[in-house]
From TrEMBL:
Species the sequence originates in: Priestia megaterium (strain ATCC 12872 / QMB1551) (Bacillus megaterium)
PANTHER family: PROTEIN ECSC (PTHR41260)
InterPro entries linked: EcsC (IPR024787)
UniProt name for this protein: EcsC family protein
Amino acid sequence: MILTNREEQLLEEIYKWEESLQSVEATEMELLYEEWLEKGLNLIPASVRETYLHNIDEGLFQLTALIQGTEMQTQATKRIIETARVFKEDITDLSEMNSLQVDQLSYICEQQMAKLRLYALSQGALSGTGQSLLVGIDIPAVLCMNIQAVQQAAMSYGYHIQTPSELMLTLKVFHAATLPRHLQAQGWHQLKSELSQEFDPYFYEGVDQIVDKTWLQKIVVQIGKTLAIFAAKRKVYNRLPIVSMMVGGGMNYRMAKQVTDYAKRFYQYRYLLDKKNESH
């Protein structure tokens, strides 16, 4: 199918965004950090390290499947369809979303992404209060919110996420979006490669390994944030740890912004690619 002028324009914007990813280079600090992390991980026996990474992989996939089946995600699906009806009143299912214009879909997606960024900011600020329970659930909450963001981005462009293949793809988008900035172009090309392959939606045949040593940087950063919260907690104004709340909220928001922007770009690209290939 021939793309409209606006869709061609958006596709060109995505290509320029892709070029901007390729131009990002690691800073000296990031290179030193990666070298330090590599040395630290190499101290762990290979068998133990691979088992640990495999367990994280399994845990993330189970978490992704669990989120998909929650009431919160069900309500998100309803909100997306209800918002779509503002533009076309007879829409009743996500599969009918492709009847909308791409800017309408992008608007719906951005509405969902804005809410999740706000949730991430609030969660980070709450963890910044230093309450043990809130700090303890911060990393799981961050993972859940950002995986949920990718899933809602997929649904906003009309993709059902119930099948194993779609769930695995959302997890790979999440992984690519949370890589260090200078590695996100590599993650983008891997995602494009996924789209170029035909696959059975009910049986995933691709590479199912998600987590690698590079991705563990995010976990280390989140742990570092937790330590920073405890360090800043002593600076209290009006009985509230303002500094640590700013640290927690700011870092969570920054990560959510990175994930939501990346996920939105990917599903825009996928939608346009699918539409372009409909006549082939």
